[in-house]
Amino acid sequence: MSKGITSKEVDYSQWYNDIVVKAGLADHSSVRGCMVIKPNGFAIWEKIQQTLDKMFKDTGHVNAYFPLFIPKSYLSKEAAHVEGFAKECAVVTHYRLKNSADGKGVVVDPEAKLEEELIVRPTSETIIWNTYKNWIQSYRDLPILVNQWANVVRWEMRTRLFLRTAEFLWQEGHTAHATEKEAREEALKMHDVYADFAENFLAIPVLKGYKTESERFAGALDTYTIEMLMQDGKALQGGTSHFLGQNFAKAFDVTFATEKGDSDHVWASSWGVSTRLVGALIMAHSDDSGLVLPPKIAPTQVVIVPIFKGEDQLKQIKEKLDPIIKFLQDKNISVKFDGSEHKKPGWKFAEYELQGVPIRVAIGPRDLENNTVEIARRDTKEKQIIGIDEVSSFVPQLLDTIQKDLLEKAKAFRKEHTTEVDTYDDFKKILESKGGFVMAHWDGTAETEEKIKQETKATIRCVLLNNESEEGKCVYSGKSSKQRVVFAKAY
Amino acid sequence: MSKGITSKEVDYSQWYNDIVVKAGLADHSSVRGCMVIKPNGFAIWEKIQQTLDKMFKDTGHVNAYFPLFIPKSYLSKEAAHVEGFAKECAVVTHYRLKNSADGKGVVVDPEAKLEEELIVRPTSETIIWNTYKNWIQSYRDLPILVNQWANVVRWEMRTRLFLRTAEFLWQEGHTAHATEKEAREEALKMHDVYADFAENFLAIPVLKGYKTESERFAGALDTYTIEMLMQDGKALQGGTSHFLGQNFAKAFDVTFATEKGDSDHVWASSWGVSTRLVGALIMAHSDDSGLVLPPKIAPTQVVIVPIFKGEDQLKQIKEKLDPIIKFLQDKNISVKFDGSEHKKPGWKFAEYELQGVPIRVAIGPRDLENNTVEIARRDTKEKQIIGIDEVSSFVPQLLDTIQKDLLEKAKAFRKEHTTEVDTYDDFKKILESKGGFVMAHWDGTAETEEKIKQETKATIRCVLLNNESEEGKCVYSGKSSKQRVVFAKAY
A65: which strand partners? Predict the structure, then answer.
């Protein structure tokens, strides 16, 4: 029973959009480029938030909150940063409206013009480092390990729900350190946290690497990335962690008295992931029946659909299952019992498939007689009959199994869609046929990188950390190369 | 040992600011009117958020997220709303910057002017009801019980950390219903949730009432409020819940097919509390040594300060207390053991008093010999020696006691600062002397309300729900009145 989702074989992009809209995850708003995150979508984001927030706190971070607005001049203080961020952004120029002369609405009050325009934050390095200046005097004030959950705005012309919107939600960590070593270690630690989260919660395997200079965050000395592969063979950057060196400390004049008694600029890292991860989740696992969610991120992990006629049967089923529901809930498994009478079981089956609930338990009067239930896995759609007494032990195990299987399946897909190529012809052929990650030699120049991008739309996703060195020749220029890098078309 | 906090008897306003700044709760930012919420302050807000979020979910609500920006024309659609909110607000007029001609910075690109200006949301009724139009067709789509955690902006000229800032954090619930009765019940239910939260978590007693017409939310038919009393005798509005009738449904043309088969406009409520509650917490309980926090909201509930010389002593103390710390943590009590060596115990005592940690446990070598610890309550500063073996049972009980005592103390203060007056002279005298809530007869007219406000700065905080009817004469006009209402000077 389909819910009218376009098959992903027919039109991947439409398939994605159908799932987002029909599963009630998000929708376009009437404000250009901004989305409404609907309750079903926000529940997934909340699971992501809660999990990451705990991981951040477990690694010593605390949350804080900085202003939404950034004075225009701040953006210009770090040379690379302004190039990257001070372009497409929302500019606040006035602070008051007044009744229009015709009495039919409101107009901007020309007398309430700001002396300096304010930019709605596209990212917060500048306002935060301007603040850290007041927080840091001595090495005793370091490190500062702060994270912020916030909305940011980047004026995007072509938007796509979750993947690219003008406003999006994210977290941004901003840390300050006394030494270069410590700041770089922090950036790498958070890179590890992101990879751990992606693989063990989202069930999405990631390539861990660093960006080439042209793909780096504007203002960073190094950008570490986790790169994911979507089912259409395109890559998606899942999160980045930046080693910022002393760039922002220098731009905002943040120095500290060192333990030795001299003065130095503070070292920095920043790192972020966004609501984009909800898009990644959908694209990594879902199918033509709708969402497939890894159990650890699914807002509802188990749905119980009773098949009944009349209140007596419903009551019988409910009573039989109540202790099991309680048992599972006590194990922190989220269980929904859908005893609503105005929807048919078939409708409910399709609806919870669309919603990606990992396990469905169905039980009717005959099951009750036989003391059995039917268990259906969302990921494989396999069904099996088990005894009611087994449910309490079976369900937690099956959730674990689904979590693992989703990761394994995604790993197998990635393996199949990772190709070493040694000629530019093969490079282009692979990109056009199966896509995926293409491992190729590159001469290390931004010119070649740019040419390849223009000709094939593929970009260097990353250079793997701990990459094996290998003698070879650049697929484009034929110049010598010491290692392969990861190319792909990307979101 | 003081941390340089101005006494509240000397300068209440400076006392408040000193606590906020010295306890590291918040600070003014370089962006006019916007504050930075520092980690210590944000940790309190997180406790408030987590507690309320659970209460909202337990009453059937789900979270969602709507755009930061509101098209200017939306504000004009509801007549009262535009008067209340479309004045002092941040207006986005452009979406791009470009390099300035002199190459020294960036300027607004005049070619990137928006066709219609966007307002940074001061509250979200308009954008949300514009969205609900797409969500609601039939009575089956109702009720919608949605909450949003978000930042909002109201351009305030005179700001005060937490209490009144241009940008602040809040939650706003927006619900849609098929009947007037249900919508009003929802508004009252959330009013109850706020009162419950204020009294049982913040330990702040509240008056529950409704606002007069002139103090109502712009666009509401009724505004229910919880009114708190601060230690300087001024009132603070802690949260409001609005019955919006069909005003926004009519403004945005949101109708639904009723169960009977006809069509009607949807009924609405909205309700919100903000980071202002952190300000209320400070003003309700704190003293000249710093913050006093109710245990249920304190990010750290127990701090253990070892008094030691050298690592061996520290290790001995730590080993002795480790099982107790673990026991308390297993009971979800947050315990911090501060074994740092570069700060003296006296400094730590003062610091944790400033931070408002409800219980301090001190233990030195002599205590170790005697198998005792010293327990200090932050609220009363009482100290007592107890056996180490008693700590596990004593601490949870004491946390409960402190929670209750803080509420009782605040109730006693309120009782003492609530005065019935029958003449305008007494009215003014009480306001000028002890302040607090003044219960007085009022003739029910907006004119009298306005006159009293102009002459005394006191406003009608609310008319109590279930107010006793009582014959009397308006303190101002002498006209007849059926009930007393609650006046106060307010934040």
Answer: B37
b/e B331-364 (16+ beta carbons within 10 angstroms → b): eebbbebbeeeeeeeeebbbbbbbbbbbbbbbbb
Answer whether residue B203 shows pLDDT above 90: yes
Of the candidates A27, A37, A92, the beta carbon closest to that of B92 is on: A92
Per-residue b or e along B275-287, where b marks 16 or more CB atoms closer than 10 Å to that residue's CB:
bbbbbbbbbbbbb
- Partner residue facing A30 (CB), from B35, B130, B342: B130
Chain A: give the shortest CA distance to residue B67, in Å. Answer: 6
**Domain-by-domain residue ranges, chain B?**
12-73+122-285, 302-412, 418-488
At the topology level, CATH places domain A12-95+104-285 in BirA Bifunctional Protein; domain 2 (3.30.930)
**Are residues A73 and B38, on separate chains, in Cβ contact within 8 Å?**
no
Nearest-Cα distance to chain B for A138, in Å, is 14
Mean pLDDT of B324-352: 96
Contact B119 A97 (CB under 8 A): yes
Question: Which amino acid makes up residue B328?
Answer: L
CA–CA dist A452, A475 (Å, integer)? 10
Percentage of chain A modeled with pLDDT above 90: 93
**pTM of the entire structure?**
0.96
Cβ A97–B91 below 8 Å, yes or no? yes
Extract the tokens encoding B21: 């700044």
Interchain proximity B71–A31, CB inside 8 Å? yes
Instruction: Could you please state the CATH topology (level 3) that the domain comprising B12-73+122-285 is classified under.
Output: BirA Bifunctional Protein; domain 2 (3.30.930)
DSSP A355-423: HT-SEEEEE-HHHHHHTEEEEEETTT--EEEEEGGGHHHHHHHHHHHHHHHHHHHHHHHHHHTEEE--S
**Measured between CB atoms, which of A29, A66, A117 is closest to B36?**
A66
Residues of A within 8 A of B67 (CB-CB) are 29, 31, 34-36, 167
Nearest to B239 by CA among B269, B276, B202, B203: B276
To which CATH superfamily is domain A302-402 assigned? Anticodon-binding domain (3.40.50.800)
pLDDT tops 50 at residue A1: no
Residue B368: partners with Cβ closer than 8 Å, 6 or more residues away = B316, B317, B320
**Nearest CA distance, B14 vs chain A (angstrom):** 20
**Chain A residues with CB inside 8 Å of B342's CB?**
140
Which of the following CATH numbers is that of domain B418-488: 2.40.50.1020, 3.30.110.30, 3.40.50.2000, 2.60.200.20? Answer: 3.30.110.30
Interface with chain A: mutation pick from B21, B27, B36, highest number of A CBs within 10 Å: B36
Q: Which tokens sit at B362? A: 């001190």
Q: What residue in B sits closest to A104 (Cα-Cα)?
A: B76
Residues from chain B that touch A127, judged by Cβ atoms under 8 A, are 29-31
From chain A, the residues in CB contact with B169 under 8 A are 65
Q: State pLDDT tens for residues B99-146.
A: 888 877 899 999 999 999 999 999 999 999 999 999 999 999 999 999
CATH architecture of B302-412: 3-Layer(aba) Sandwich (3.40)
